[in-house]
Amino acid sequence: xxxxxxxxxxxxxxxxxxxxxxxxxxxxxxxxxxxxxxxxxxxxxxxxxxxxxxxxxxxxxxxxxxxxxxxxxxxxxxxxxxxxxxxxxxxxxxxxxxxxxxxxxxxxxxxxxxxxxxxxxxxxxxxxxxxxxxxxxxxxxxxxxxxxxxxxxxxxxxxxxxxxxxxxxxxxxxxxxxxxxxxxxxxxxxxxxxxxxxxxxxxxxxxxxxxxxxxxxxxxxxxxxxxxxxxxxxxxxxxxxxxxxxxxxxxxxxxxxxxxxxxxxxxxxxxxxxxxxxxxxxxxxxxxxxxxxxxxxxxxxxxxxxxxxxxxxxxxxxxxxxxxxxxxxxxxxxxxxxxxxxxxxxxxxxxxxxxxxxxxxxxxxxxxxxxxxxxxxxxxxxxxxxxxxxxxxxxxxxxxxxxxxxxxxxxxxxxxxxxxxxxxxxxxxxxxxxxxxxxxxxxxxxxxxxxxxxxxxxxxxxxxxxxxxxxxxxxxxxxxxxxxxxxxxxxxxxxxxxxxxxxxxxxxxxxxxxxxxxxxxxxxxxx
Length: 527
Prior knowledge:
Largest sheet: 7 strands, mixed
Structural class: alpha+beta
Low-confidence stretches: none
CATH superfamily of the largest domain: GroEL-like equatorial domain
Number of strands: 23
CATH architecture of the largest domain: Orthogonal Bundle
Distance between the termini: 24 Å
Number of domains: 3
Helix content: 40-55%
CATH class of the largest domain: Mainly Alpha
Strand content: 15-25%
CATH topology of the largest domain: GROEL, domain 1
């Protein structure tokens, strides 16, 4: 900047400024780049990405995982990644859709900017379009009962389709629905689900088909002593949070021993104290012990002699989870144990080959565990991601009581009805709403491309079907035919669609209004 021929320095040397259309174009290109990075992963026939960080290799088509792993520098691109992160946090699914929609909205905005439409008009049109789209979505949503296990299974299956775990998705979806239904808490008309009440344990080395639901907890420890039983039926489980050993004094102390009798007496007193601790546990009626800290060897001996299956150094997370699953209570000291504090389970057993302890058959369990296995760590990780996605979408559907139809049926209906709505709005905002509607074409186009079909042909067929009143018409990605997706059982929670549309539209409306970017570099130019 200059005043009367003299330069006036406003910004520091390490601030890089981009102004006007160049700033808008920079954000548009960044959003489109992120969109393109994940676009080929959308749908059941989407491709996978290989992410390499040092020696760690991740193979996945999960949008949230891809975007969280890649290193993004551009501020506009970071905002798109934040949209995907928020989508994952809120819904657990739909991250790829959200990222693709931001890119499509920004692409339409670029076209309007070249036409001379002001960013404020675009932003206002997008906001109006978003509000109308959410209204239409509410109309298209279908009510679902938490007891409708078949529909819930279809929602879970849809979330897992396209991942490299196709062989077990039917079994996995049934297990996930059972798990979520078990931990669901009904308060009046509302259903509340804490996703942390479903623990997912992974194990490498077996077939993926060995996936199982444990109404209890699996702990990564085995019994302390061979004389302890390998399994216990009708388990009564004591849970203690403090160490079961003689602890050191807080202050320094010396004991002066002048004879062998004193040594013997000191040893006898210590053993008596340890036996007293073991006797208190035995007296409580427990036949299984979980200790968050260490257990002295002498106590292990007495417990083993009494036939009590014992574990030490159980993690705090596993202890809290066990207390919830077993309907028991964690106590600080053995003397605090009572029959009321003990958790109960049908069976506690050692899984020798896997070095795990399985506590199962908990009545009225408030927490459950899904045990998944796979021949390689890559398969285990992908199955873990698929299970977590399915878990979240079932939670979304049960809590909201609504779902929508997949296969691009909703997006096609939205683009047709939004165009009709745009005709009722005057001014330049009408053009922006029409562009907002057109942005939804990216979903059916991408599904067709990823499935090997001509995207233009399939888009035309979809529009015709919806124009004829077939609001559930969508693309069967395996046959290429336009079919009733409700009859096909392709269901998605309404929350996933709502969050994707809202967050993508709001981010695009925000980014398009930016006409000046001032980026402070960590070092001065040329350094």
